Amino acid sequence: MDAIRIRGTKPLSGKITVSGAKNAALPILCATLLSEGESRLRNVPGLRDIKTTSALLGFLGRDTQVNTPDVIVSAETTPVRPMAPYELVRQMRASVLVLGPLVARYGKAKVSLPGGCAIGARPVDQHLRGLEALGAKIAVEHGYILAEAGRLRGAEIVFDIPTVGGTENLMMAAALAKGRSTLVNCAREPEIEELGRVLNKMGAQVEGAGTAVIHIHGKDELEPFDHAVIADRIEAGTFMAAVGATGGDVLLEHAPLDDLEPVVMKLRQAGIEIEREGQAVRVRRQGALRPVDVTTAPHPGFPTDMQAQFMALMTRAEGRSVLTETIFENRFMHVPELQRMGARIETRNNTAFVEGVDTLSGASVMATDLRASASLVIAGLISGGETIVRRVYHLDRGYEAIEKKLAAVGADIERIDLEGP
Ligand code: UD1
User: Fold this and answer.
1) Are the beta carbons of 84 and 110 closer than 8 angstroms?
2) Confidence label for 218 from pLDDT (cuts 50, 70 and 90)
3) Is 186 a catalytic residue?
4) What values do phi and psi take at 45, rounded to 5?
């Protein structure tokens, strides 16, 4: 099984190109189902989640050619089978994003319930309630969501909490519903704004994507599209944290600075210099690393997807930082692994107290989820001796060739083949 071996404490310097955003590409791939023609995506990252989505689209009956950074979803030639099996959904929760497009276009769908995952229970009640408001009949049987509808009808939907996937699923469904929908208390992530742009290219009238209230004028039919995906703010933020941790000077090409404001603010407070340089962003740290407190929140707050990486950074700060996780109930799985590397962290409920130490020591550690894996890689980069990160399939879900990108800026890091789990 693949693992990542790191020999730490080398400052990073050079250039890294940020890939396309996973969390933007996944809903956009699902949006291709809304039209019968051939759609083309560009700047798609080469990730396991993209392959899983392509397998899912293939299962549904839409041939997908993945040749990243290009992906082509071919026109509908055979009748689509509106069914997402457990086997695929369990590999990637975002598979539930086919639900909205399938119900809207085919009037029925059978999609496996995603179930919980390492970081929390993650229900989809808001997705289902919203679809019911648009006129779908929903039942849950034998672990599957069964949805049926005639033509969906526009409606006003108020989310109880801002949910990224829920907002996306309902935007896609509403784009083919009859009449006007208003979605209230929406998630405001940049990836939602991006989906709004794509739906507009398809001919839907979407206003307000990226704000709390989205208006959508549904259409009878939508057009296929050609679209280049925005850059991955979380990948960029992860590299910023890595450079902040190791020290050094790295130019991040295509880093989406505007989408990263809450992260950049905290990194700057920690003593990391981050400056725009043309189309790129220069990240540097020369002085000491200062402790900074962080509380995760829906966008434009500090993203939960950067919490683990920020914690790895804070293990080396000169003092105590307090990190509070408010989005997922179980997102401190990286803590025991960081502790095994010598980090001083205590947790109480959803808060972690991190006391910076002078050095971490390399160890064999286990990745538990995607962002936890990235935090272990950062910890490995600042640890003396050798770190082996196991279960890197988590990392491969969301980081394109991370070991190659880091090796190119001077890290001693490689992928190895290890016996055992
Ligand atoms: C997306 C991102 C993920 C990120 C998360 C929060 C993708 C593919 N994934 O996940 O990387 O960590 O946003 O920024 O874009 N909830 C409910 N009921 C629902 C839906 C959600 O209670 O119907 C809860 C969840 O359990 C969680 C919170 O709402 O506590 C936010 O979840 P949500 O925004 O839906 O996350 P995802 O779309 O799954």
Assistant:
1) yes
2) very high
3) no
4) -75, 145
pTM: 0.97
Q: Ligand 1 centre from 289 Cα, in Å?
A: 31
Same-domain pairing of 244 and 261: yes
Q: What is the pLDDT of residues 111-144, one digit of tens each?
A: 999 866 777 778 999 999 999 999 999 999 999 9
Measured from the CB, is residue 114 less than 6 Å from ligand 1?
no
Q: How close are the terminal C-alpha atoms of the chain, in Å?
A: 7
Is the dihedral angle over the CA atoms 410, 412, 418, 421 positive or is it negative?
A: negative
Q: What token pair was written down for 145?
A: 């969501």
| Residues 145 and 248 reside in one and the same domain | no
Among 102, 164, 174, smallest CA distance to 138 is for: 102
Which of the four pLDDT bands, split at 50, 70 and 90, describes residue 419?
Answer: confident
Residue range of the domain that includes 132:
22-228
Distance 273 CA to ligand 1 centre (A): 31
Within this chain, do residues 150 and 257 fall inside the same structural domain, yes or no? Answer: no
Q: What is the mean pLDDT of the chain?
A: 96
Within this chain, do residues 270 and 400 fall inside the same structural domain, yes or no? yes
Give residue-wise pLDDT tens across range 373-412: 999 999 999 999 999 999 999 999 999 999 999 999 999 9
**CB-ligand 1 contact for 26 (6 Å cutoff):** yes
Q: Are 210 and 239 in the same domain?
A: no
Residue whose CA lies nearest to ligand 1 atom number 9: 23
- Find the CATH number of the domain harbouring 255: 3.65.10.10
137 and 36, same structural domain? Answer: yes
**Site to substitute for ligand 1 among 93, 159, 161, most atoms within 8 A of C-beta:** 161
Taking only the tens place, the pLDDT of each residue in 25-73 is 999 999 999 999 999 999 999 999 999 999 999 999 999 999 999 999 9
User: Which of 228, 260, 295 is the C-terminal boundary of a domain?
Assistant: 228
Taking the C-alpha atoms of residue 52 and residue 58, their distance in angstroms, rounded to an integer, is 10
Nearest residue (CA) to ligand 1, atom 38: 165
Question: Which one from 72, 75, 83, 117 is the annotated catalytic residue?
Answer: 117
In the listed set 184, 205, 228, which residue is the last one of a domain according to the structure?
228
The Å distance, Cα 19 to ligand 1 centre, comes to: 22
